[in-house]
Structure formats: C-alpha cells, structure tokens
Specification:
The chain is mainly alpha-helical and 375 residues long. The protein has a domain of 153 residues. It has 17 helices and two strands. A two-stranded antiparallel sheet has the order 1-2. α8 packs antiparallel against α9. It is elongated, with a radius of gyration of 29 Å.
Length: 375
C-alpha cells in the first residue's frame, strides 16, 4: 500500500514537472509568435501558435493568437474556428475572442451575426468596454443610432479614456444633427489622440461643426440680422437651448464686427489721406488670427455651457459638460485649443506649445487628476 502511494506521488510529481516545462515552452512559443505577428510575419507567427496547439488544442491564448494571425492573412473561416475554440472553452477568460470573431463577421458582411457575437460577449463580460464599443460601431453602420449611442455611453462610463468611443460618439451625433454633443465628444477624442490620421479627420469634422458659414448669419438691406440653423436639434433634445444661445451669441459678435467695419470705412473716408497709413481697426470674431479666434470661440462655448448646466441631468451634461466646465474654470481653454490643433502641423501651433510648456503640463496634470462622474 505504501509502495503504491509512493508510486502515485512520484507519478504526480513527474506530471507536474512536465506541465510546468510545457508551460514555459508554451509561453516562449506564444511570445515568439506575437513578436512575429507584430512584424507582419503572420504565416511564421501562426506556425508558432500551432506548435502549442498540437500539444494542447484548447490553449486559450494560442487559439486567440492563431485567430488573430488568420484574420490578418484573410483566412476568415479559420480565424472564426480558432476564436470559437476560445469562446467554447469554459475555463478561458479571453473576452477579446468575442471581439475578434465579431470583427471578422462584420468585415465579411455578416453584420447580424457580428452583433449577436458582441451581445453574447457582453452577456459574459458586461464590463468589457471593447465589446460595447464594437457593438456600437456595428449598430451605427446599420443606422440604429440610439442603440449605438447607448453602447458608446456604456463603453465610456467603463473606460473614460477610450479615445475610439469618444470619436465614434462624436461622429454619430454629427450624423444625428446634434452639433454641440458632437463637438464635445470630438474635443475629448483629440485630447487623448491629438495626432495621426484619425485626429486629422476628426479635426476637419470639428472645424466644419464649429464654423458657421455666411448663409447661417446674414444682414438684410436694412441692417437686420437673419439667422438660419440647419443643425438645430429636435425640440426634445435639451441641448437645443445651447445651440440657440450659441448661434445668437455668434450673431451678436458678427453684428458688432459688421458695425466696426462700417465705422472703420467712415473713418477711412474722413480721416485717412495717406494710402500707406493703415487704420487701426478693432477685431472681434471675423478679424484677427485664426487660432486666436478658435480659442476665443471655445472659451465662449464652454462659458455658455457652464452658465446653462445648472439643474441639467443626463450623460452629456454630467460627463462632458462638467468636464469642460472645470477645464474652462481652471483656465485651460487656450491650451486645449492649441493642443487639439496639433494635427494641422503648423509651425505657429508647435511654437506656441513649445513656448507655453508650463501651460501644457498644467493641462496634462489637470486631465490626469480629473475625477469623472461615471466610472
């Protein structure tokens, strides 16, 4: 009996040692495979993962990485098969397998199946922001705007610094005609990701949203102001009042600038006789440096939101408006305006940021210490 017990212990020890050695080998093969994948050597990477899978066909990480490499090789059926091995493994804890499978299904036009996959993943991993984000992107593509918006808000509540969620929420609100909500989301995205292709595209969208063309604010022959608002949200939207107030504010500025121009012409005609002498005309919204105007308009918008936020409830007010209200009160608006303009790659922007390094660091420190309402 003692002999049999000793044999059993010896057998268990050998098995444990073999498993440990295998784990070390598995870790090395997987690490080597990931490194090859990152270099774009997807076939070689897949071979490394398959070495592990020959010994342990259910290894969660090896299956997931194999699925990832197959997706990169456009071997979509194989990618789904590997991802399913992870999803069907009750001992696995790899929510990214649902994300990967959903992405492959979405890319291959199987949107309904992709949505179902994301929903299954959310049922299992309700606090995974990437599952909510990818579900939102799929629903956005199907023009299910309200579902997509709800999922993006959930993703942001889980991970406030997920740049992609702010970007898509901004674009979604642009599509819905909610200009102010779109602007707030895009600013948050650009604070997190001020450079790169996504930032360049986002900033161009932001410029369109923050610029009123001459058809929106016009003067009649009798110097009366006419305002048209193609972006005005639905009456049920509580940001409608912000949009109205913002347009009126800008219209007043334009009227003042218009009057300044008339006065300047009068002064020119009566007082200026030397063509080389330039009159010192006042500048408001339509005069001065473009970046200065951009910062000034941001200041006006954040101040307006600060004034109108009292008693307001809901995600956009309690998350975005509280954020920009605090940013405005801490005097970071000018720095924000230059920082989010980085993707324009203009010397005057980089020169300003370099010359105002303390302000940039103050903005960074403030952002890092800001306490979000939803976490």
């Amino acid at each position: 009996m003692a002999k049999n017990g000793l044999s059993l212990l010896f057998s268990l020890a050998i098995t444990t040692l073999f498993a440990q050695n295998n784990d070390k080998s598995f870790q090395k093969w997987i690490a080597d495979g990931i490194a090859l994948h990152d270099k774009g050597k997807f076939v070689e990477a897949l071979r490394k993962f398959q070495i592990v899978l020959k010994t342990n066909s259910n290894h969660p990480t090896a299956n997931y990485e194999a699925a990832n490499s197959c997706a990169a090789l456009h071997r979509y059926d194989d990618a789904i098969a590997y991802a399913d091995k992870v999803i069907q493994n009750s001992d696995a804890d790899v929510p990214d397998a649902f994300v990967l499978k959903g992405n492959v299904l979405d890319m291959t036009g199987k949107v309904a199946q992709a949505i179902e996959t994301y929903e299954l993943g959310i049922h299992q991993y309700p606090y995974n922001h990437l599952l909510h984000f990818n579900l939102a992107v799929a629903q956005w593509g199907e023009k299910a705007y309200q579902i997509a918006e709800n999922e993006l808000i959930t993703a942001i509540k889980i991970r406030p610094n997920h740049a992609g969620s702010h970007l898509v929420l901004g674009l979604l609100n642009r599509d819905k005609g909610n200009r102010i909500k779109s602007i707030l989301s895009l600013y948050n995205f650009l604070l997190l990701e001020p450079e790169g292709k996504r930032a360049e595209s986002a900033f161009k969208t932001l410029e369109l949203l923050t610029t009123y063309d001459d058809s929106e604010v016009q003067f009649t022959n009798h110097d009366k102001l006419s305002i048209s608002m193609p972006f005005l949200p639905d009456e049920s939207d509580d940001f409608r009042s912000v949009e109205l107030a913002w347009v009126v504010s800008r219209a007043i500025d334009k009227k003042e600038s218009h009057q300044d121009s008339l006065n300047a012409k009068l002064i020119d005609n009566q007082l200026i006789t030397d063509a080389e002498i330039a009159p010192n005309r006042p500048h408001r919204y339509y005069g001065g440096d473009e970046l200065t105007r951009f910062a000034t308009e941001n200041e006006k918008l954040f101040q307006l939101l600060s004034d109108l936020k009292i008693g307001k409830k809901g995600f956009y007010w309690e998350f975005y408006v509280d954020f920009f209200d605090d940013l405005y009160r801490k005097r970071h608006t000018e720095t924000l305006s230059y920082f989010v303009s980085l993707n324009k790659k203009e010397n005057k922007i980089t020169d300003w940021l370099r010359s105002n390094q303390q302000k940039v660091e103050a903005l960074s420190d403030w952002y890092a210490g800001f306490e979000w309402k939803y976490q």
